[in-house]
Structures are given as structure tokens and as C-alpha cells.
Amino acid sequence: MQTKRVVVALGGNAILSDEASAKAQQEALSKTAKQLVHLIKKGYQLIISHGNGPQVGNLLLQQQASDSVKNPAMPLDTCVAMTQGSIGYWLQNALDKELKQAGIEKEVATIVTQVIVDEEDSAFVNPSKPIGPFLTEEQAKDEMKKSQVQFKEDAGRGWRKVVPSPQPLGIKEYKVIQTLVDNGVVTISAGGGGIPVIGETLSGVEAVIDKDFASEVLAELVDADLLIILTGVDAVAINYGKENETSLFQVTLSELEEYKAQGHFAPGSMLPKIEAAMRYVKVKPESEAIITSLEQLENIEIENVGTKIRNR
Ligand code: ADP
Ligand code: MG
Fold first, then answer.
1. Atom 27 in ligand 1: residue holding the nearest Cα
2. pLDDT by residue (tens digit) across 240-250?
3. What is the pTM for the complete model shown?
4. Which of 16, 130, 138, 195 is the most exposed place for a label (fewest CB within 10 A)?
5. Which atom of ligand 1 is nearest to 233's Cα?
């Protein structure tokens, strides 16, 4: 069997259910690892990426709670690196166990990943992504006087820092990832969309890269045959949440273009996945993108399982 290279992007629910303890997240990831090993057994070569929204959010809260001169809160880029490490460790550990149990000899490695963004990206002029703790209006205005950071009112829940969400342009470590993949290693990289860095000096910035977009760039760079985006639904739908909701199974670029224009995909949740999938099959017309749930991962080869996106 020809080995298929597949980038699998894990959504929030693959890591965290309702409890944020290390133990609970490790348990969630052990279920995830079982599903991922199913794919390995089928002969797929896995290049894993993942989100970190809740984890980096909680880490920022912890940082703020103990912020002092002797123990200063770490900046966002460093916090992203920290969550790449912690989630990578949990998943590496869980995959090692599952692989061993399945009698498969394979190494797993996490790569701390820097993702290159353009400092001229318009996102830096208009930060849009809310992160971290909720503040009162007064606290937020105080913070804004002290520094350049922007705060915005978030859906009646309080004021939150907003950071830019620039487009990922490249992955600093992609050759390392490629080398590992070429040698049969299961990689975990671009966690949380990667650590955003700018310029020749690769300076980390206060920004958040969408993990779906970063995973797409990763899939292009490692020349994957397949991009699988795992999320909270078995398939993408049109008229989502309405009476006439209809799941999409086989869909082409031009069909998706039309549905997108009609506003079927929610910005900030499904839309980035759709856009990532569309870009991928546009750039690599022979490849396929699949959006589905972790539970359906073992069934993706079956017709009408998951949303399968092709160029034509
Ligand atoms: P992830 O952590 O996987 O990125 P998100 O919550 O950001 O998950 O995005 C996935 C969610 O988007 C789904 O669980 C679903 O609730 C929602 N969603 C919005 N629009 C659609 C749609 N058209 N079809 C299916 N799900 C949709
Ligand atoms: Mg998301």
C-alpha cells in the first residue's frame, strides 16, 4: 500500500472535554491517540497539529494571577510555546502507549514551531482575536493607558485583550518536520497555530495564528496528500442549526465558494476550516481535504462520512 501523507489538525474537543486538569486532558488525548493509531494502522503517515485556545487562555490567567517583579507574567508568544510543549508532551506520551499496544514500532516527536507572519499584515492594524481574562471596563482602560495593547468589550461578558490574527506565511522548522516525516516519525507541530514571529530576527509577537490556516500551510510545505481537520461535528452543514440543515459530504471548490458567499459558515469557527480546505485543494488540485469529527476518523474511507472537499 502506498503511504499517504496526512496532516491531521486536532480541534479543541480532541484535547479538552469539560475539565481542564492535566489528568483530564491527558485522558482526552489518550482517546484521541487511539483514533490516530487507527489511521497509522491503515498505513497513513501522520503529521499532527492542534489548537490551544482554552489552554493558552488558562495559562494567561495563571500568569496574570502571579505576576510580580520576581515572577513576571510571560508574553503571549512564550505562552504559545509553553502550550505547544505541554500538549505535545501529553499527546506524545499517549501515542507512544497506543503504538506500543498496537505492536507498532514508531517514534513520535513534538517540534516547537515558529510560524512566520508579515509585520505589514493588516491584522496588526486591526486586532480582532479576544484572548485571556475578562476585565472590567475600568481595568481595561487602565491597561490601555499603560501600554499599546487593545481591549474590547466581548459580547456583554466584560473587556478582553484583542490581539491580531495574521496570516501564516511559512514555518521556520518545516525542514526539520519534513526530515522527521521522511524517516517515518510521527510529528506534532504548529500547535496553537504556531508561535508568530516576524522579520529576519524572527521576533515573537503578541498575536494568534489560526490553527486551521497554519495546518494548511504545513500541509503544503510537507506535500501532504490529505488535510484532515477534526472538529466538533461529523460533517459541515449548510443552513447549520436551522430546520433545513443539510450535511455536505462530497463538495467541490466552486460549490463551497457559493455556500461561503451565502454565509453558511460561521466566522471564527467553521469559516477558517472551510477557507483552509479551499486553499489547500486550490494549491494542490490532486489532494483532498476532509472536515469531520474525531469519532468518524476511523471511517473516513467510507462514502458519506465527513465532508470531503476536492478541487473538482
Ligand atoms: P475547533 O476547536 O475544532 O476549531 P470550533 O468551535 O472553532 O472548533 O469550530 C467548529 C464548530 O463550528 C462546530 O462544532 C459547529 O458548532 C460550528 N459550526 C458553525 N458553522 C457550521 C456549519 N456550517 N456546519 C457545521 N458546523 C458549524
Ligand atoms: Mg476553532
1. 270
2. 999 999 999 99
3. 0.95
4. 138
5. 14
